[in-house]
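User: I would dearly like some help making sense of a protein record. I have put the entry right below:
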Amino acid sequence: MRLWTVVATTFLLAGASSAGNGTIDAKAAFARMKTLAGQWQAQTDMGKAQISYEIISGGTALVERETMGDMPAMITVYHLDGDRLILTHYCMAGNQPRMQAQSFDPASGEIQFRFLDATNLAPGAGHMHNATFRLTGRDRFASSWEFYQDGKLAKTETFEYARVK
C-alpha cells in the first residue's frame, strides 16, 4: 500500500510540474496587450515611428499598424488560439512570421513572444523571429523585435513608445 502511494504521488507531482512548463495565462496577457488601444509614437534612428492599436472583431483581435518614415506600413495581429496568445506579423520583407507568447509577468508587464513558423519564408530569408513587450504604464511601453537572417540573429530593434491618444 505504501509503495503505491509513493508511486502515485511521484507520478502526480511529475505530471503537475511538466504541465506548468511553457504555459502562461494567455487571457491575462491578451487583456494586458489590449490596454495598448490608441495611438503611440517613438523617436528612432530612422525617424519618428507611429503605431496604433485597435481592438476588433468583438474584442477577439488586436490590430497593430506601424508606420515609420518612408517605409511601407506593417500590420501585426494578436489573438487568442485556445490557451495560447499568438501574433502574426505582416512584414514589409514579404513574409508573415507567427509567434506565440512564451512568458508573461503581470508585475512587470513583460510579454515574450517566440517564433512558431511563417508563411512565404524562403530558406535563410530575413524575418522577425522574436518580440518582447514591456507594458510599463498606461502611457508608455517598449518593444524589442529580433530580426533573423540565415538562421541567426542579425539585429534587435528596440523602441520606447509614448501614448499620443
Remarks:
- The two ends are 66 Å apart (CA to CA).
